[in-house]
Amino acid sequence: MENRSLVTIAEHSKEKILYLLEMAKQFENNPNRKILDGKVVATLFFEPSTRTRLSFETAVNRLGGRVIGFSDASTTSSSKGETLKDTIMMVSNYADLIIMRHHLEGAARYASEVAPIPIINAGDGANQHPSQTMLDLYSIQKTQGTLENLNIFLVGDLKYGRTVHSLLMAMRHFNPTFHFIAPDELKMPEEYKIYCNENNIKYVEHTDFTEDIIADADILYMTRVQRERFTDLMEYERVKNVYILRNKMLEKTRPNLRILHPLPRVNEIAYDVDDNEKAYYFQQARNGLFARQAIICDVLGITLDDIKE
Amino acid sequence: MENRSLVTIAEHSKEKILYLLEMAKQFENNPNRKILDGKVVATLFFEPSTRTRLSFETAVNRLGGRVIGFSDASTTSSSKGETLKDTIMMVSNYADLIIMRHHLEGAARYASEVAPIPIINAGDGANQHPSQTMLDLYSIQKTQGTLENLNIFLVGDLKYGRTVHSLLMAMRHFNPTFHFIAPDELKMPEEYKIYCNENNIKYVEHTDFTEDIIADADILYMTRVQRERFTDLMEYERVKNVYILRNKMLEKTRPNLRILHPLPRVNEIAYDVDDNEKAYYFQQARNGLFARQAIICDVLGITLDDIKE
Amino acid sequence: MENRSLVTIAEHSKEKILYLLEMAKQFENNPNRKILDGKVVATLFFEPSTRTRLSFETAVNRLGGRVIGFSDASTTSSSKGETLKDTIMMVSNYADLIIMRHHLEGAARYASEVAPIPIINAGDGANQHPSQTMLDLYSIQKTQGTLENLNIFLVGDLKYGRTVHSLLMAMRHFNPTFHFIAPDELKMPEEYKIYCNENNIKYVEHTDFTEDIIADADILYMTRVQRERFTDLMEYERVKNVYILRNKMLEKTRPNLRILHPLPRVNEIAYDVDDNEKAYYFQQARNGLFARQAIICDVLGITLDDIKE
């Protein structure tokens, strides 16, 4: 049988992405279904991530499945020296699907190669986080009515930001124009600029973050400058306050502009933005529920036809 | 829509309290119902409390709902600097109800003001713990046949004891006589004595804890002298052994006397009391299941009529 | 009512063991049933054990029951000084069954004496772990077609290894021949050799672990040399690499030989053994699901007749 694991969104064709978004739309119409009745899903969070875990666990529970797992590896057999392979083999005996987060890049790929059941990558180090990308795409499509020909501004930590890298790659199918707004220390890495060139993705780089620069944005994708990425905390303190979106910066922006953020935020979006109708980050998080229900069903072999009501 | 959150029992009228107690009684008759089928309840314990969490989670599970959440905030986004508002907004996307415990007073109130879904306060610092009060009231009503005109003795830590303060306020509707038995260091605070005076609640203060003093008690409410409340551990060591209830102290007490304790106890009730038929603290804990089922249903808009069989 | 707790497999007769194995077989045919609908099972892991916990929780979920509990006692009331009795009494108010793991020997026995609901011992210190023994027996019976007259080789840490002690006692009904293979520091304790003599169990002791010695084994039961058992870490480092099973050692073994291991392993089975058809440890872990479903049903009074389809 085909292993239907989802390790990276880069493996998905344009058609597959649009298909999953259509599935997510069905789940937004009705997220409560009994389609996973009798299924056990393991959420293995070797690295904690409450938001992602709760979103996936809600997705499973609303579909009638049951959840087992752990939210922190410190008390697991891994700490007794067990290999990832053995842990995955063990859990494969119990569950029908493993959703895993790991601090090591490549962990999800490896797990998908040894496991007899599907794996969903819920984040592997700085590498991939495909369900986040699916909910970003769903949020863009829903708010803009299309994924095609959009001006997408990525702001903040473009060097370590896993979500912006994945979004960039997934958007290659849809003729976007990207604007990269970041301080020098956190610039978009060369490899992704090469990727853009190879895939005919237009991009412009900025180091300023001003009202004028974002005037023609359709999507403003803000990211958190994560303390844990810095070895020099002085540098972090200097940088973290530079790229802050404030409500008055939004006055001249397009009416269709929507502001996204993978959350959690620290201070990169001022609280006065929350009441602006262009703020969309909390609804975006809600879309994660539907996008994840679509992903879960897909890796388990449940089709759009199965869920249409 | 009206926000039906439960932040403090002080907001409830006498009628509302009696209504919830009647609901709890229905659940004691049958705690297993499918009335929350399709609902997801988030238990967010920013501060650990196994007892309260397990009681709430049992309540949800026996009603057919599903539980997501965390039992300890140390691995959540809060530790990455996320605000309470953002955490609550995020979880509101997934769950139909949030049950939260937090170390800060006022946290539940604040959450109820920002959340689009109901909040149940499962304890906010030294402030409120309304579901504990409801199970205390249910236990008193069940064992005494009434809530009216009772002699209620509160023993131990009356200064920091959240449960005794809430019980005192909730009893204002029922013409109680309170006896406050505490060492000087842990006396009932002035503000609550003023509250008693303003609400025509009779009270007597004692510093001794003897057989004679408790002779006419209907309810003896013991509390734990919590080490974590003391800055001076020497003081704690001196005080903790003073207010211990022993079985021989119960000989001359009323037949209808019942001993309550919010649990966990350390040593303030000697183990030889456990087999005395006046000991009621374990059954009291069991009543928490029914009281919490009533509270959960009420905040979700499920009425007594909906659950009557 | 009879307390149906499972504290140790030593209490079970031959007939009871064979009955539970027959039940497990029924669950292997179909592990997904609604037989625990409306039941709440508490998994109280005072000591972490992810594998055992996930196995039990899967067993409950696939039978339609609901799970509450904790995976680590560090944030529970135990850390506030609550006694085990009080914790057990509290949880008994909520759950229909307690599955508990504790670092203290005798904890499960004590819990079964105070609790009004059944207890399943999921490991108490170095003492007992009966569900592990049931899955070992199930794995032996399934792979050998019988439990009678087998050559069983126990390898590694026979001094502290709880699983080998329990297996040895459970096999007394089935006329086994045991081979104990261990370094001097980790030899089978005298008390178990006396037990063998008293129960007419044949055994041979070895300090070498070679191809020749295991030539007539039906079951090779490998165990982990656990670092946490050693006070002298130098001694651990010396011993841990001595008893390693490698694929080339299996060439002259019997065709029916199967290799068991309670898992997690560290390095006592080389990875090249995993693809050998005699490796059975991952399937063994899977059998844990069915064995535990049988145990759970049995302590709850559900019979083989109830589950036969």
UniProtKB/TrEMBL annotation, chains A, B, C:
Domain Aspartate/ornithine carbamoyltransferase Asp/Orn-binding: 149-297
InterPro entries (UniProt xref): Asp/Orn_carbamoyltranf_P-bd, Asp/Orn_carbamoylTrfase, Asp/Orn_carbamoylTrfase_sf, Asp_carbamoyltransf, Asp_carbamoyltransf_Asp/Orn-bd
Residues where carbamoyl phosphate binds: R51, T52, R101, H129, Q132, L263, P264
Residue ranges constituting the Aspartate/ornithine carbamoyltransferase carbamoyl-P binding domain according to the UniProt record: 4-141
Keyword Repressor among record annotations: no
GO MF term (any one): aspartate carbamoyltransferase activity
Alphabetized PROSITE patterns for the sequence: CARBAMOYLTRANSFERASE
The enzyme's E.C. designation: 2.1.3.2
Keywords: Pyrimidine biosynthesis, Transferase
Catalysed reaction, written as an equation: carbamoyl phosphate + L-aspartate = N-carbamoyl-L-aspartate + phosphate + H(+)
Pathway: Pyrimidine metabolism; UMP biosynthesis via de novo pathway; (S)-dihydroorotate from bicarbonate: step 2/3
One Pfam family named in its UniProt record: OTCace
Protein origin, superkingdom: Bacteria
Binding-site residues for L-aspartate, renumbered to this chain: K80, R162, R224
Enzyme class: transferase
Biological process per Gene Ontology, one example term: 'de novo' UMP biosynthetic process
Family designation: Belongs to the aspartate/ornithine carbamoyltransferase superfamily. ATCase family.
Function field: Catalyzes the condensation of carbamoyl phosphate and aspartate to form carbamoyl aspartate and inorganic phosphate, the committed step in the de novo pyrimidine nucleotide biosynthesis pathway.
Subunit-level organization: Heterododecamer (2C3:3R2) of six catalytic PyrB chains organized as two trimers (C3), and six regulatory PyrI chains organized as three dimers (R2).
Protein name: Aspartate carbamoyltransferase
